[in-house]
Specification:
Length: 125
C-alpha cells in the first residue's frame, strides 16, 4: 500500500463528473399479458436535483416486469444508482518513483491491484 504524501505520489485530484448523474428516469415496461407500463421517477431536491444540474433524463425499458408495482420498485433502485456520484481518483506520480512490474525490487506484478491511502482533510481514499 502506498500512502500520500511519500516519494512516489506527487499529487491527486478527485475528478468525478456530475454530468454523468441522472436525476429523472422514464421507465417503460411490458407485462406478460402485453400491457404497456409507463412511469417517471425523479429526484428534484438535494445535491443532484434540478436546481443544480437541470433535468438529466435517461429512458429505460424493462421487458421482464410483471406489474406497475414491480416497475416502481425497480425504478426506485435504478434511480438511487443513477444519482450516486462515482469517484474518479487521478494520481500523479513522481518521475522514476515507481519501478516497472517484474524488475528486481518492484514488489508487484503487472496484474496486481495497487492500493493508495490518502489522508487530506475530510478526504480518505
Amino acid at each position: 500500500m502506498w500512502e500520500y504524501p511519500n516519494g512516489k505520489i506527487r499529487d491527486f485530484s478527485d475528478g468525478s463528473i456530475p454530468v454523468e448523474t441522472r436525476n429523472e428516469l422514464a421507465l417503460v415496461g411490458s407485462a406478460p399479458n402485453d400491457i404497456l407500463l409507463r412511469q417517471r421517477v425523479s429526484k428534484d431536491t438535494g445535491a443532484t436535483g434540478y436546481q443544480l444540474f437541470g433535468r438529466r433524463q435517461e429512458p429505460l425499458y424493462f421487458a421482464w416486469v410483471r406489474d406497475a408495482d414491480e416497475l416502481a420498485r425497480v425504478g426506485a433502485l435504478r434511480l438511487a444508482r443513477a444519482i450516486r456520484a462515482e469517484p474518479d481518483l487521478k494520481v500523479l506520480l513522481y518521475a522514476n518513483g515507481v519501478l516497472p512490474p517484474g524488475v528486481t525490487g518492484s514488489g508487484y506484478a503487472l496484474g496486481d491491484r495497487v492500493r493508495i491511502k490518502i489522508k487530506r482533510g475530510i478526504t480518505d481514499f
